Structure formats: structure tokens, C-alpha cells
């Protein structure tokens, strides 16, 4: 994920939940993080556990951190930066908001000119790897111990023996959120079967003041793609999600197409989904009762007035959930490389402990963060997702221009569902060769 203006889930209870989840390719079960035991973290003699870039700078410097978070999410992240500045008073950290989608256009020409708009920048993992291989991003190998993190989480930012990015916290995309008070007021309950889900939508549609049962978030593309991925995982299984990511299965394959034809398109045509609405505005209108359900990531817990009034359910029968990790990197063009690496390391370790304790709605990917360090509502989410298979985000994993195409084609489908064949063929024909 990315946020517009702008982890996963054993009862060894190891934060494997987020990790396997987050990164995705190591499929296991969501588990709740605890202090790692000797069997959880296997150290090797060749893996460094310390770094020389931890000394407090002798003179004051100012670093710029660039991330996608705004509003309540920015306030939560600012708490992390404030804690860092308390521990390192000679380093001032300023935060600037840039969406990953915008950075994808801004950073390449700046890199070519030997410049960068920030010293520590949050971006998609695949993008960090690509531009690290092109020589624009610092190799952070040795800065942290990969064995202290969820298995496989470094894969998206690793090339050979070089690690170009570090993981921060992660979020899950577990299902449809609703207000408990709304469900109680209208005698609604979580569906246990697909037929019950359809009955719930029809009942909600008849409630006075409801514009549509499900609000569709938009403006950045990914909210709709998250919904589609959830349907794919539910009715095609976790394996279909992975095969689509790897290009082993085409979007116009009959088994993929039938998920759209039998489940997604009929809901759109019956008016169960709203037309696309700017996603943060959609949060407000959903919370105020204009819509009853919203498929969104766990960060929504920090965007509402009363998180204790939140409930969620996946589609009946769903056995997997997408997890999304936030990755950071240090551009080679920073004027303060040692201080930037110090901040990067801190964010990837102790900074996670601070972040998961805020209302950001995130999970730690560093195994040394305990479940009890997390905000109470996120502990509840952990427990509810513990039997789900963690999976990577489809469009984030594929990346590149296809990601934007995926978003645009799904928005087209939402407003014109009769174009299903055209949409699926376009996604298939333009899928990057592996």
C-alpha cells in the first residue's frame, strides 16, 4: 500500500503474521508477533548484527523524510519521527508528503541529475530494487539483521547480495469494514455464505438514506484493485493470486474470467457498489451512514472517531489476505549519508515499535516487537486473521506501467461493466513478460 495524500499474521505468536503476509511469497499463516525465540530467529555467522553508522552526529543536521501519509496517518508517523529526534537531538527530521505514484515520475529525472528530494524515502519495494540496480540507491546491506524480520520480507528490495531497501511496518487488507452500531441498529449480521452476503447487500440497499451497500474508494486506483484481489483470492484461491502475479495465469483465462462474470460484475450491475469516490471522502461518507460497507486496509482503524465501533468480515470462504509492507530507501544523492542510514536503521527497528503503538493501524515486521506493543484494535485484527494465508499485493508485485493500467481498467469496469472482455484482454495483452 500506499495511502493517497498519502502485518500478517501462529501462535508461536510470532509476527510472522505480517511478514510472510507482507511479502507474500512465503505462504503460511497469519501469526501474532512476540519476542523471537531461538527457533524463530536463526542467526548465521555471516550475517552482521550491528552497524558502524549509529554514532550520534557531532553537529546538527537536517534530514528530509518523504512518505505517503497525510491526515491522521501523518500524525501517527510524526510521533515516530519525534521519538527519533528525542533520541538523537542533533538530527532534525522534516517530513514531506508525496504519493508513490507521484514519486514514480519525480524521482527518475532527479536521479539522472544527481539529486533527490529527500534523504529517506518510502516507495514500492519493486521500484527500490529497480533503481538500486540502476545505481541510484545506497546498498543498505549490514545495516540490520535480516534474520530478525519476517521471512522473505527483503526479497522485493534485494538484488544478489545487495539490499537496497528496509522494511518498516505493514498493513493487512482483511475484508469489508462496517460500524457495529449500524449493524445493531438495523438487525444486520456478518454473512457466513455467499447467499447470505447477497441477502445482506439487498437488505442494506433497502435501508432509507443508503446510497449503495458498498462504497467504492477511488482517485488513486488501488482501492478498487484491492476489492478485486479479494474476490480472486476467495473464489480462485491463494494460488490463483500468485499465478497471476507470476504471469503463469492470464486475466482472460476462463477460470479468472468466471470470477468477474459470476461475482464482481453482477454486484456492480445491481448497484451494490457505489460509483468510485475519492477514498478518504469515502471513509467519511461511509462512517456517516451513506454506505454500510467499505473494503479497506487496516489503516482505516486510525481514520475513524471510534475504532471500537469497527467490525469487519472477509467474503465467506476466503482463505487468504493481502498484506502490504512499507519500504524505505536512502538515495545516493543525500548530503548526509551516515545520518540518513542511522535514521533508516532506526525506522526499520525501534521506530516500528513506536509506530504500531499509534493509531496507524499497522503491524510490525521486525520480530523483536511484541504483540503487546501494538495498539489494542490491531491486536484484535491479528487474532481474527490468524488462520488466513498471507499473500502479496498483486499490482504492487507486478509494478511498472502495468500497475497504472490495472487501476485504470478496473475503474472502467466499475462504471461500464459490459466492457469486461475488453478490460481482461487489455490486462492480458499488456502484462509484462517475465
Automatic annotation (TrEMBL):
Keywords: Membrane, Transmembrane, Transmembrane helix, Transport. It holds the Pfam family SBP_bac_1. The keyword Coiled coil does not apply. It comes from the Archaea. SUPFAM superfamilies: Periplasmic binding protein-like II. The chain crosses the membrane at residues 9-32. Belongs to the bacterial solute-binding protein 1 family. This is Extracellular solute-binding protein family 1. It comes from Staphylothermus hellenicus (strain DSM 12710 / JCM 10830 / BK20S6-10-b1 / P8).
Amino acid at each position: 500500500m500506499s495511502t493517497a495524500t498519502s502485518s500478517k499474521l501462529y501462535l508461536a505468536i510470532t509476527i510472522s503474521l505480517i511478514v510472510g503476509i507482507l511479502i507474500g511469497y512465503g505462504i503460511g499463516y497469519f501469526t501474532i508477533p512476540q519476542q523471537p525465540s531461538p527457533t524463530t530467529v536463526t542467526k548465521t555467522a555471516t550475517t552482521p548484527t550491528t552497524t558502524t553508522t549509529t554514532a550520534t552526529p557531532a553537529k546538527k543536521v537536517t534530514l528530509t523524510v518523504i512518505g505517503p501519509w497525510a491526515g491522521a496517518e501523518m500524525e501517527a508517523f510524526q510521533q515516530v519521527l519525534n521519538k527519533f529526534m528525542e533520541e538523537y537531538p542533533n538530527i532534525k527530521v522534516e517530513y514531506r508528503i508525496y504519493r508513490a505514484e507521484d514519486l514514480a515520475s519525480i524521482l527518475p529525472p532527479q536521479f539522472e541529475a544527481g539529486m533527490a528530494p529527500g534523504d529517506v524515502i518510502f516507495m514500492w519495494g519493486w521500484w527500490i530494487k529497480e533503481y538500486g540496480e540502476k545505481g541510484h540507491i545506497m546498498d543498505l546491506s549490514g545495516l540490520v539483521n535480516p534474520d530478525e524480520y519476517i521471512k522473505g520480507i527483503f526479497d522485493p528490495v534485494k538484488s544478489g547480495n545487495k539490499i537496497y531497501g528496509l522494511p518498516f511496518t505493514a498493513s493487512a487488507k482483511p475484508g469489508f469494514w462496517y460500524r457495529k452500531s449500524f449493524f445493531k441498529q438495523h438487525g444486520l449480521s456478518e454473512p457466513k455464505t455467499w447467499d447470505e452476503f447477497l441477502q445482506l447487500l439487498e437488505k442494506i440497499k433497502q435501508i432509507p438514506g443508503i446510497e449503495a451497500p458498498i462504497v467504492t474508494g477511488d482517485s488513486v486506483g488501488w482501492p478498487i484493485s484491492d476489492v478485486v484481489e479479494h474476490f480472486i483470492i476467495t473464489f480462485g484461491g491463494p494460488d490463483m493470486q500468485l499465478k497471476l502475479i507470476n504471469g503463469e495465469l492470464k486475466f482472460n483465462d476462463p477460470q479468472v474470467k468466471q470470477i468477474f462474470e459470476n461475482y464482481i460484475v453482477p454486484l456492480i450491475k445491481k448497484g451494490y457498489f457505489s460509483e468510485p469516490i475519492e477514498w478518504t471522502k469515502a471513509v467519511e461518507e461511509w462512517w456517516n451512514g451513506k454506505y454500510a460497507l467499505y473494503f479497506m486496509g487496516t489503516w482505516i482503524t486510525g481514520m475513524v472517531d471510534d475504532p471500537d465501533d469497527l467490525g469487519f468480515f472477509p467474503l465467506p470462504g476466503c482463505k487468504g489476505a493481502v498484506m502490504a509492507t512499507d519500504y524505505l530507501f536512502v538515495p545516493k544523492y543525500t548530503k548526509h549519508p551516515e545520518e540518513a542510514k542511522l535514521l533508516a536503521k532506526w525506522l526499520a527497528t525501534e521506530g516500528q515499535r513506536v509506530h504500531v503503538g499509534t493509531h496507524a493501524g499497522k503491524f510490525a515486521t521486525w520480530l523483536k516487537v511484541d504483540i503487546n506493543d501494538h495498539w489494542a484494535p490491531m491486536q484484535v485484527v491479528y487474532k481474527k486473521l490468524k488462520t488466513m494465508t498471507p499473500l502479496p499485493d498483486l499490482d504492487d508485485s507486478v509494478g511498472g506501467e502495468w500497475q497504472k493500467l490495472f487501476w485504470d481498467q478496473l475503474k472502467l469496469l466499475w462504471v461500464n461493466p459490459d466492457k469486461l472482455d475488453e478490460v481482461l484482454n487489455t490486462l492480458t495483452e499488456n502484462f509484462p513478460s517475465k
